[in-house]
Amino acid sequence: MMMFNLSGKTAIVTGGNGGIGLAMAAALGEAGASVALVARDETKGAKAAAELGNRGIDAAFFSADVAVEQSVRETVDAVAARFGSVDILVNNAGIAIRKRPEDYSLAEWHKVLDTNLTSAFLMAHAAYPYMRRAGAGKIVNIGSIMSYLAAPFTVAYSASKGGLVQLTKALATAWAADNIQVNAILPGWIDTDLTVSAREQVDGLNDNVMHRTPAKRWGSPDDFKGPVVFLSSSASNFVTGTQLLVDGGYSALA
């Protein structure tokens, strides 16, 4: 359907060099968009961009620290210079430090909040002028079921992802008149490198996820292809300030 066609659009995906980010970047490229992968790991990023290129997607990697304002602004400007526009922004970059709150240092707290939350504000702030001049834009923030739920080892992560939902709503109301839609996707337990380490660090996590998830499986990065294309396309032009749960029903249980 033409309403899902992203031809002529440029999409930025932070943390787009692996896992959910790379799957979403591939989906956007398959829908016709040019794709800018933004992350810190240059080797991994170049490999991911080459992988997309081999699939016929116009993709490039940009090395940046998304928690540093100057790095963000220089990167967004470079993307616009390379592709000619900034139409779609997917704020996917994120980290987790799994510790009980009493074991957290202030430096660790700031590292998680800056990477997961402040970076989304900085990227959106830098992309906004390009979207406003174009008369349209799409911003998709990747939160988590921990935006609403919590666990003893997710103090900073839950705070950052909860804040991301509120940032999504606030930006949506601020920029709706500019025809910029801002929405969030909230993943549940997804089988990625990040959750492999979680299963190693948290006793009983796999059993809990399998028992509580009605779908009776962990999610896959490919489960995010449809949602991100929908929220990045004209199909969602009257959808803004929302949160789409992609968790196999995990959060629906009381």
CATH architecture: 3-Layer(aba) Sandwich
The ordered string of helix (H) and strand (E) elements is EHEHEHEHEHEHHHE
Strand order of the largest sheet: 3-2-1-4-5-6-7
CATH topology: Rossmann fold
The class by helix and strand makeup works out as alpha/beta
Largest sheet: 7 strands, parallel
> How confident is the prediction overall: mean pLDDT?
96
Give the CATH superfamily: NAD(P)-binding Rossmann-like Domain
E-strand count: 7
Question: How far do the termini sit from each other?
Answer: 37 Å
Gyration radius from CA atoms, angstroms: 17 Å
Q: Any idea of the CATH class?
A: Alpha Beta
| Beta-strand percent range | 5-15%
| Shape type | globular
Low-confidence stretches: none
**Helix count, DSSP H or I runs of 4 or more residues:** 8
Overall structural domain count: 1
Fold and architecture overview:
The structure is a single chain. With 254 residues, the chain is α/β, with parallel strands linked by helices. It contains 8 helices and 7 strands, in the order βαβαβαβαβαβαααβ. Helix 1 packs across helix 8, helix 3 runs parallel beside helix 4 and helix 4 packs parallel to helix 5. The longest helix has 29 residues. The chain is globular, with a radius of gyration of 17 Å.
Q: Could you name the key traits of this structure?
A:
254 residues; alpha/beta; Rossmann fold; 7-stranded parallel β-sheet; 7 strands; 45% helix; globular
